[in-house]
Specification:
There is one protein chain. With about 290 residues, the protein is an alpha/beta fold. The protein has eleven helices and twelve strands. The strands form three sheets. The protein has an eight-stranded parallel barrel with strand order 1-2-3-4-5-6-9-12, surrounded by six helices. The chain has a two-stranded antiparallel sheet with strand order 7-8. It has a two-stranded parallel sheet with strand order 10-11. α1 crosses α2, α2 packs parallel to α3 and α5 packs across α6. It is globular, with a radius of gyration of 18 Å.
Length: about 290
């Protein structure tokens, strides 16, 4: 199973600004040592696939990804075309992240959460069929298809990801109706990870485990930083519980590096996505982990 002590980490940055200069952001992410530059998929933000093509055009090593494509907004066959075309234009550097979607459009307003989860499962089936079909045009460069990431939180999503995902993306938070997200506690997060790992092992699979990091705070006082964040992000948790979470990186760069290692050992996480607002805050941590 993934996540042993010798496992190499992968780090990405998720650009969420609708006004982002994608070529410049891509150059900086590659220069700083990130493995992946990703984009989200919300109305009102930059169109995901053209943005990734622009990022790949000015870099040589950097992978690009959707983090995460809202399956409720896309016809699966149209999405397959976009994925295949983008994979070709990026030289096979595309990973595709999918999620059932928390937000939508006027056309998806009537969908229930279960409808969205069903659509996600159907989209995975259609993409697998079309992207691996030798007769389908356009054909992706990646073989047998671009890497598939699935964002999870609900039990059905955990099962789907264990069966189908190359990378399982743990959201690590809930989104109550009409409110901002609320972080899961460490035990609840650990239970989700254990469910995926157990089911994947039963199927003879070992997907990469990823989490989206919500905040990076470089500080000499981890406890004070956690206390300051607690009212907005997790009022139901103690400071000690916040410090156990993989969704918050708090401390000096050395302490954050140790926190990443701890999360690998406790949760099996080897892949992390930080927000673009923390691009420079987290970057000094990367060489600390690459050297062992």
């Amino acid at each position: 199973m993934s996540g042993g002590p010798g496992t190499e980490f992968r780090f990405g940055v998720n650009e969420i600004s609708p006004e982002a200069d994608w070529p410049e952001r891509a150059r900086e992410a590659e220069r700083l040592g990130y493995d992946t530059l990703a984009t989200t998929d919300h109305l009102g933000m930059s169109a995901p696939f053209p943005s990734l093509v622009a990022a790949a055009a000015v870099t040589t090593r950097l992978q690009v990804a959707t983090y995460l494509t809202n399956a409720s907004l896309w016809d699966p066959e149209v999405l397959a075309r976009e994925i295949a075309g983008t994979d070709r234009l990026t030289g096979g550097r595309l990973s595709v992240g999918l999620h059932a979607g928390w937000t939508g459009s006027a056309g998806t307003a009537a969908l229930t959460p279960q409808d969205k989860r069903d659509r996600l499962a159907d989209t995975v089936d259609v993409l697998e069929r079309l992207l691996t079909d030798p007769g389908q045009r356009p054909r992706p460069v990646s073989s047998p298809r671009p890497r598939l990431m699935l964002g999870v939180g609900e039990p059905e999503e955990l099962e789907l990801a264990a069966r189908r995902a190359d990378t399982v993306v743990f959201i690590g938070a809930s989104l109550p109706p009409g409110k901002d997200f609320v972080l899961l506690g460490p035990d609840e997060f650990a239970a989700q990870v254990a469910t995926v790992r157990r089911r994947a092992a039963e199927l003879g699979r070992s997907p990469e485990l990823n989490v989206g990091v919500k905040r990076v705070v470089v500080t000499d006082d981890r406890k004070a930083a956690a206390e300051a964040l607690r009212p907005a992000l997790a009022p139901h948790l103690t400071v000690e519980q916040l410090l156990e979470l993989p969704t918050l990186f708090l401390g000096t760069h050395e302490e954050i590096a140790e926190q990443v290692r701890h999360c690998r050992d406790r949760y099996g996480l080897t892949s992390y996505m930080v927000l673009s607002s923390h691009l420079y805050d987290f970057a000094p941590v990367i060489p600390l982990l690459r050297k062992g």
